[in-house]
Amino acid sequence: MFVSTLRSCFYLLLAAFLCVLVLPASAQLPPPGYNSHWRTADGSEKLALEFGGGWDLAMGAARQSETRGWNYMMGAGYNFNRHLALLGEYGFNHFTVPPQPKLSDTIPISGSLHIWSVTADPKFQYFATDRVGAYVIGGGGFYRTSNHSDADNGEANDAGGVNFGTGIALKVSDNSDAKFYAEGRYTWIDNKPTPHTTYIPLTMGIRW
Q: Which ranges carry the Outer membrane protein beta-barrel domain (predicted)?
């Protein structure tokens, strides 16, 4: 069921992205010159806020030790204009670790993997209509990976990491700057001496 849910989210994101490509482009912001203390010269809001959550898909060697995953994230930043923004983001990811055999007996070890992150992430919107936009986003920062199991509770590993991906944003209403967004990002963490942690969070939420 989990795999089916991830597949459905991927198809939804792909279908929405294809819709963006065929929609006619038009101005989606107030005309230039509308700028104030809270808006840029092209009319977009200067302050950026976001809240979201979703599912995680383990990648590479991590698929052998991690199964179901979920995430939530929040962020704030600055919109330089309607195309370019810089976001500071906090994220939390939870993975379930399937039972692993112990060396001393036959009782399996089970647990979870937690990943906290604080990153700086530029966002570039490369396509926009009056209601829909498409963007790329990526950056890097600090990641803390913590294992919680029957045999070990809270062993942590601090490392740097990077992420990059793409998404779409749909304006909630004509009278609001809020947008519903859906995105996927590939994340790579430079864990040492353990193998690198890689995963793709599929996240949906609200962005202003």
A: 17-196
Task: Provide the token pair at 154.
Answer: 């809270």
Place of tokens 């383990």: 58
Q: Are strands 132-149 and 179-189 parallel, antiparallel or unpaired?
A: unpaired
Does the pLDDT of residue 26 top 50, yes or no? no
pTM of the entire predicted model:
0.76
Cβ-based neighbours of 27, under 8 Å, separated by 6 or more: 130
Q: Which stretches of the chain are DSSP H helices?
A: 2-22
Q: What angle do CA 95, 97, 102 make, to 5 degrees?
A: 160
The token pair that represents 11 in the structure block: 């198809």
Kindly indicate the confidence band of residue 20, based on its pLDDT and cuts at 50, 70 and 90. Answer: very low
Q: Are 108 and 102 in contact (CB under 8 A)?
A: yes
Could you report the per-residue pLDDT of 45-64, keeping only the tens digit for each?
899 999 999 999 988 765 55
Domains along the chain? 2-207 (2.40.160.20)
Is 200:184 a contact under the CB 8 Å cutoff? yes
pLDDT digits (tens, 9 = 90+) for 63-77: 555 567 899 999 999
Token readout for 80 is: 């330089």
Measured CA to CA, the distance from residue 10 to residue 78 in angstroms comes to 29
- Exposed, middle or buried: residue 17 (CB in 10 Å: 0-12, 13-18, 19+)? middle
